[in-house]
Amino acid sequence: MRKHKIAAIGGDGIGPEVISAGLDVLDACAKRDGGFALEVTHFDWGSDYYKKHGVMMPDGGADKLRSFDAIYFGAVGAPDIPDHVTLWGLRLAICQPLDQYANVRPTRILPGITSPLRHVTGPELDWVIVRENSEGEYAGVGGRVHKGLPEEVATDVAMFTRPGVIRIIRYAFELARSRPRKLLTVVTKSNAQRHGMVMWDDIAAEVAREFPDVTWDKMLVDAMTMRMTLRPQTLDTIVATNLHADILSDLAAALAGSLGIAPTANLNPERKTPSMFEPIHGSAFDITGKGIANPVGSFWTAVMMLEHLGENAAAARLMKAVERVTADPSLHTPDLGGNATTKQVTEAVMRAVEAEN
Ligand code: NAI
Ligand code: MG
What we know:
This protein is of the alpha/beta class. The chain has helices at residues 15-33, 47-53, 61-64, 83-95, 162-178, 196-208, 221-230, 242-255, 296-308, 312-326, 342-355, and strands spanning 2-11, 36-42, 70-75, 102-108, 126-132, 136-145, 153-159, 183-188, 215-220, 237-240, 263-267, 275-279. Helices cover 39% and strands 22% of the residues. Strands 2-1-3-12-11-4-5-10-8-9 form a ten-stranded mixed sheet, sandwiched between helices. Helix 1 (15-33) crosses helix 10 (312-326) and helix 10 (312-326) crosses helix 11 (342-355).
């Protein structure tokens, strides 16, 4: 029996609701498969922990995660704590020391889901966005001087290192090569930002020489929003900086039907440290505790985690089960225009996993 050690961090808001649903579904996957078991350890880190202890997670928290095979993460953010405190105190405090430098976000329109794009029925939109996850605009470099005084100054410096850019662009080319269309779009803003972004363009051209079988092009991020909306079928794999891809992937999630569906993986591709898997959405205070959070994002996230753990048969089975359930409008949560509950969707997916070949 293969055993995988999972660290579960539900976090804040609907995070614990969708992670608990995801763990139930993962349990059904393991039982159905029969070849592996998940050993889950729960961590109660997040905003409630902060209110008790003044920190989002204990000192050395990220190091406690090193012995796990994967991290399954909900969301972080509370209405009464500033977002930069919660984000930097937990999510980034895990991603950065564990060097999860590749953030990977598949986007597809699942069966039964309607895209807000009038001309898109499904197959026209099938992307993977690769986000640089370790530096750039979110490197944390900068400061505030003369705080609160009339002469106050604040800076955020985007840090782009040659090794950091090479590794993410190489990862994106490899991913593009593994997909049928072998098509990569490199997104920058090198007309206005003439240092770091021009280095991205230069490095993309250098790395491209290692991948003669991959077709690639460049886009400015502003024009990219139009191309995603007007010509989604011309895109496949996309790579962009931490900030640009953060924004583009929210747009992608919306175009694919709902933020509640979209998954993401924070990968250390060399597997020197555990990777972290989370739905894209945040803690959604507006619906917390109502039992109506869409768990599909956390299920699709679980598919990515199973793939990373090498459980490809179980991953494929879970994805099929999810698609079977999204195809049925009576199992849509309110964000998709339905009135199903988290529990109903979860139970339906568990049944579909059990029934799947
Ligand atoms: P959000 O993603 O929490 O919510 C945006 C909208 O989408 C809300 O109307 C929400 O109800 C809806 N929504 C999100 N996930 C859903 C789901 N699974 N099912 C149904 N509806 C869903 O983003 P928002 O409101 O900007 O941020 C709320 C908090 O979450 C903030 O503190 C923010 O900093 C944090 N956040 C955390 C993230 C993370 O942990 N990775 C990512 C984004 C935001
Ligand atoms: Mg975001």
